[in-house]
Amino acid sequence: MSFRFEIEARDGSARAGRFVTPHGEVQTPVFMPVGTVATVKGVPQDTLEELGIQILLNNTYHLYLRPGVDTIRRLGGVQRFMGWDHPILTDSGGFQVFSLSDLRKVTEDGVMFRSHLDGSSHFFSPESAIAAQIGLGADIIMAFDECTEHPAEYTRTRDSMEMTLRWAARSKEYFEEHKQEVPWFAERSGESQSLFGIVQGGMFADLRRESAQRTVELDFPGYAIGGLSVGEPRAMTCEMVNAAIRFLPEDKPRYLMGVGTPEEIVHYVAQGVDMMDCVLPTRAARHGLLFTSAGRVTIKNARYAADESAIDANCGCKVCARYSRAYLRHLYASNELLAQTLNTIHNLAFYLDTMRKARRAIQRGEFAEFAAGVPLPDAEKRV
Amino acid sequence: MSFRFEIEARDGSARAGRFVTPHGEVQTPVFMPVGTVATVKGVPQDTLEELGIQILLNNTYHLYLRPGVDTIRRLGGVQRFMGWDHPILTDSGGFQVFSLSDLRKVTEDGVMFRSHLDGSSHFFSPESAIAAQIGLGADIIMAFDECTEHPAEYTRTRDSMEMTLRWAARSKEYFEEHKQEVPWFAERSGESQSLFGIVQGGMFADLRRESAQRTVELDFPGYAIGGLSVGEPRAMTCEMVNAAIRFLPEDKPRYLMGVGTPEEIVHYVAQGVDMMDCVLPTRAARHGLLFTSAGRVTIKNARYAADESAIDANCGCKVCARYSRAYLRHLYASNELLAQTLNTIHNLAFYLDTMRKARRAIQRGEFAEFAAGVPLPDAEKRV
């Protein structure tokens, strides 16, 4: 059994559960911090463990370009490479190919793109993207998809969704034939990775439904909802999640890709989402935006220059236990490395704490009450 | 008693001892990592504690400019400001005024200089520099000195040394009248800071001797040797240390400022030095130069791209315990923040371990043997 998922409690549509991978167990709902090139920027792995982080996301596109799949394969897979003996998920590479690389050319076969690092030419097909993900060796890998641009017309969106479905079938076929090639196959007693499918369909509810139904027909151990949080209003995101999630199986984890704010992630849990990832807590931290139980703190503001209080009086993280806003403001104003490290630790603690509270509320049957206490600050504005 | 120093063991000229300050005890010989603006770049304070670091150096010039003395004073002093309830030493500001600022003008009264941050004009006299250090509240502070440029003629060096002696007397006089103004005076039961004198005298042995003798006449609880490691050959540094240290009292700590490589610090301990500080381990780390028991490692080299071994097989630090050279090389090549953090932790661990071994060797009467095992790699080349 390379993957097991069980639901332990339900409260409305929200679910609390756990899944088991070859590198360990993950309690859901879970927020997965982004460690793009096999590092959560500025935070050592032992600190990630102290924060209670159980699973990280790495970006296939970045690791494929540097240090390269062969290097990581030879070093035993990305878990051993980064000194993280816990679950990792890699994305499909599709989103980055579309958002970061230059001069991409999409055909039925796959995507030709140029590296954002050195302009070199590369090609990802469903087969080669899965081969890359097998070489990297994450516990959960993603089918190669086309992330439909936003906005997009109906016909264009449907054609893109159809291609993603064909690519999903090719991804799965390649994976089934090659999954024993994962670097740690032998040492993990023949366990391998799990390949998740991705629902697309742009901003059209009927396409979301059709994409969900037809992806489920392909039979994956988990399903992601992709192509959202790409600039559309939040109400639209929720509508699309709702359109898709009703057609995903109850007994499989649902992963909403690329979300969200601390308030949003609670509300996606309410919709039945089990897994999320987002660069927001880490990227915002590096820009001095801190999430707290009393709202956002922009730490560079002069008003914090002599503020002896912690970032968040209700936070138990080691940054809040030790450092004042005045110190963190000084570090940020002085462009000091430690600002980025400490800010990131706090924001991750806040996200992890939010998810732990959500999980506990579901287990106690108090989730609606909990979610009501986390109001969405503005219907349209993100962050 | 704001300061106590005791020698526990001697071996040749080398001494092992300890000193006690209002914020705690320090075992000597000690290497003091540099935390310029109240942070050792990229390393959280709990990690500094894990490394066994007992005392940090902060730079008066930098903290005076940002966040400013008043801010740190209001926040209780630099220890509380940076969340480091352990000893801190601040330098006099003299060296940075001479090396970093623009358009300085030196008179008998003091130094007019422009901030390297915004070009604003400032003036440090012995009195104002000591006032700044009292406001910052480090446990050990330094007399305001002129760091004589190198090279300098004999007459110029003698005149500079004479002015430093007059400034030392003024520094002491101001300190004695104002030492109760340290921010933590009341809460530490009337203990205050300790002011150390600084020996100058350039590259002339007779001036070093005279500077030492006349600084000692002013009677400080500790003595620094300044104005070295400014570009002269290492043999000259050793000669100047020797010329001065023989005239410093046995029962007071001796602090050699701004040195050195891991090998050099062992040999300065052999000359009777008790305290040292240097940016080398931290700055070199940020540039990918790692110190190991087998020599230097330039981690960016392609030869480490698939090297599964630790930086140093003989190192017990948490970086060597967890991460491979291949991973550290990847982080450095990818310009990742974590490279700087992990490299710095390792280099500091290596320096601290070197000092612990030196101390133990002195206690066991095996110091000559220990020092012989740490050969100076090249008589002239630094790093």
What do you see in this structure?
- The structure is a homodimer of 383-residue chains.
- Helix content of chain A is 40%, strand content 19%.
- Chain A has 383 residues and is α/β, with parallel strands linked by helices.
- A six-stranded parallel β-sheet of chain A has the order 4-14-13-12-11-10.
- In chain A, helix 7 packs parallel to helix 8.
- The longest helix of chain A is centred in the C-terminal third of the chain and has 27 residues.
- Chain A is globular, with a radius of gyration of 20 Å.
What is the strand tally of chain A? Answer: 16
What oligomeric state do these chains adopt?
A: homodimer
Approximate shape of chain A: globular
Radius of gyration of chain A: 20 Å
Overall SS class of chain A: alpha/beta
Largest interface between protein chains, with number of residues from each side = A-B, 37 and 38 residues
Spatial sequence of strands, sheet with the most strands of chain A: 4-14-13-12-11-10
Q: Please state the average pLDDT score of chain A.
A: 96
Q: Provide the helix percentage of chain A.
A: 40-55%
Q: Termini separation of chain A (Å)?
A: 40 Å
> Count the helices of chain A. How many?
15
Poorly predicted regions of chain A are none
Beta content of chain A comes to 15-25%
Largest sheet of chain A: 6 strands, parallel
Q: Could you give a quick summary of the protein structure above?
A:
With 383 residues, chain A is an alpha/beta fold. In chain A, 40% of the residues lie in helices and 19% in strands.
